[in-house]
From TrEMBL:
<protein>
    <recommendedName>
        <fullName>GmrSD restriction endonucleases C-terminal domain-containing protein</fullName>
    </recommendedName>
</protein>
<feature type="domain" description="GmrSD restriction endonucleases C-terminal">
    <location>
        <begin position="113"/>
        <end position="210"/>
    </location>
</feature>
<feature type="signal peptide">
    <location>
        <begin position="1"/>
        <end position="24"/>
    </location>
</feature>
<keyword id="KW-0732">Signal</keyword>
<dbReference type="InterPro" id="IPR011089">
    <property type="entry name" value="GmrSD_C"/>
</dbReference>
<dbReference type="Pfam" id="PF07510">
    <property type="entry name" value="GmrSD_C"/>
</dbReference>
Amino acid sequence: MSGKRTTVVAVLLLALTGCQGVLDGQLPTTSSQQQPPAANSGQAAQQLAGLTIAAEAKMAGYSRERFPHWAGQGDSCDTREVVLRQQGSTVQTDGECKATSGTWVSVYDGVEVTKAGDLDIDHTVPLAEAWRSGADKWDEEKRKAFANDLGGVQLIAVTAKTNRAKGDQDPAKWMPPKQDYACTYVAHWIQVKAQYALTVDQAEHDALAGVLAKC
């Protein structure tokens, strides 16, 4: 009987320990990091061939506010916090869904980050780039969906340094410093542009094709 009592006590202690985070206003942790899927260069080449090549539109009328973000996702969470939870390891959040601890690996530069505030959520295809490529003609609902797209490869947690170095530049002008991420990066860029029927300019197209040729 003593063995059974010991087992029951151990289970109860484990349950109470697991519940303590909730009692303290903490949400459950994410146990493993989920990075965006690896590149499929063959599919990317087919998608690139289907994109319309066109000169970029003007920036007249653009502002980031034209792409409402970060949208609420329920349970006090917004899009940024959801991405942090999805793409981090052992992420702990408070009662307002803010990440209080965890580990993230920024795929742009390979840097391991342990403080959520050191991360930006990058739009693979930047908002301004989308505007110049056709989003200037969208309604606000579609721009909001683009800016908060949790279902694909448009949002990724990376170091603030790399995100700000990238700015709104396309792959003809900027590529991630981690060279072995190049194939995945251009494949994701093409995937987003294909998904939203955005155009590419000639220099952008040639840069994308050049990277894919080496993948």
